[in-house]
Amino acid sequence: MTDSAANLRGMIAVTFGMAAYSINDALVKLVARELPFGQVLFLRGALSIAILLAVIGVTGGLRHIGASARPMVMLRALFDAVGTLCFIAALIHMKIADLSAVAMTSPLILTALAAVTLRVRVGWRRWAAIAVGLVGTLFIVKPGPGTIDLWALAGLGAAFFGAARDLTTRKLDATVSSLAVGLYGTVAVTLSGAGIGLGEDWAVPNREQWTMLAFAAAFLGLGTYLIVYGFRGVEIAAVAPFRYTLLLWMGIAGFVAFGEVPDRWALFGAALIVLSGLYALHRETIARRAAQATAIPPA
Asked: Do 100 and 244 meet the contact criterion of CB atoms below 8 Å apart?
């Protein structure tokens, strides 16, 4: 496959992966209006585990599940669980489009974490982009006496733990199966839902709720697969910007399912986040190419 064809494949896969995530989020929000928070996490997680185990079984990877239970995999699962808890809690109380904009600060936070923990060199331009992106979240969080949106802060927490999860993922041994990593993360999220559920009064879901939960689990799995597939063998700089189509899909999902329309300040904040993220990605690409050029000995 040529580079251009691979990039096109990646762009399409990531775009539809974001759409699948948006459908999952809308369905979860619909169900969470009627069922307790912990129960929704547990039931969706249980269905996702069943789907993952079926896929792993078909691909012959069940025998490697135990060997994948390594400390770094478990740490990633912990970050995944905490980030998901923050995200779903914010999803229930926030407009979907607003939350998606806050979640898009995750790549910027990842850059900052890599600079602090891995001593990755980050120039002043990328630090400025990170600052602008975080300022963009203020237009969504709207801080002020008695007006700060605590749920938006939960969304920012989800972005932080999502970045920590992605940073941990980069440290995983290449021999560890991606499906196994996803399974352990899903198990951690499901167990956290069960723990929260100890303090809740669970109800028996009706047929419609079961259906929405099943579709949410399926679209979550589909989105995860499409993202992994979309980033294999492509130029990251060409494909990564299509992650921001999540804002479009989430906006559509929020309007269709709940009649939600972001206010002008939230739209302005979202624009700042997207532009700063794209600029940071552009600078990272320039830095990577410069490093590769200096690493190649002259002929």
From this structure: no
Helices (H), 143-263: 150-170, 178-197, 207-230, 236-239, 245-258
Report the phi/psi class of residue 95: left, alpha or beta, with left for phi > 0 and alpha for psi in -120 to 50.
beta
Largest CA distance in the chain: 71
51/45 Cα distance (integer angstroms): 10
**Does the model's pTM come out above 0.85?**
no
- Distance of alpha carbon 85 from alpha carbon 76, whole angstroms: 14
Q: Tell me the helix, strand and coil percentages in the chain, rounded to 5.
A: 80, 0, 20
Structure tokens at 158: 């989800």
Rounded distance, CA 38 to CA 44, Å?
10
What is the per-residue pLDDT across 123-158, written as a single tens digit (0 to 9) for each? 888 889 889 988 888 887 776 655 556 788 899 999
What is the distance of C-alpha 248 from the center of its chain?
15
